């Protein structure tokens, strides 16, 4: 966060930031980047599940 030309910060704290964001954009403003995050993270989650499933199968075959 950077101060404006007069040296004042736009928010006095985290609650002030949240309230101003809520007033300016509504509750969905907090989720504006969520679809992009889901598209980015989905392949990682799927690969993790696949590897964990394969590890569990391998552990069962060797008796762990």
TrEMBL record:
Chief subcellular location: membrane
Keyword RNA-binding: no
Compartment annotation: Membrane
Keyword Transmembrane helix belongs to the record: yes
GO cellular component: membrane
Solcar repeat extents: 1-58
InterPro entries: MCP_dom_sf (IPR023395), MCP_transmembrane (IPR018108), Mito_Metabolite_Transporter (IPR050391)
Pfam families according to UniProt: Mito_carr
Keyword tags: Membrane, Repeat, Transmembrane, Transmembrane helix, Transport
Membrane-topology descriptor: Multi-pass membrane protein
Source taxon at top rank: Eukaryota
Family according to the record: Belongs to the mitochondrial carrier (TC 2.A.29) family.
Protein name per UniProt: Mitochondrial dicarboxylate/tricarboxylate transporter dtc
Organism this protein belongs to: Phtheirospermum japonicum
């Amino acid at each position: 966060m950077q101060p404006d030309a007069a040296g004042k910060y736009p928010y006095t704290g985290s609650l002030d930031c949240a309230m101003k964001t809520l007033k300016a954009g509504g509750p969905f403003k907090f989720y504006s980047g969520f679809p992009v995050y889901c598209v980015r993270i989905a392949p990682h989650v799927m690969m993790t599940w696949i590897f964990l499933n394969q590890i569990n199968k391998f552990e069962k075959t060797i008796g762990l």
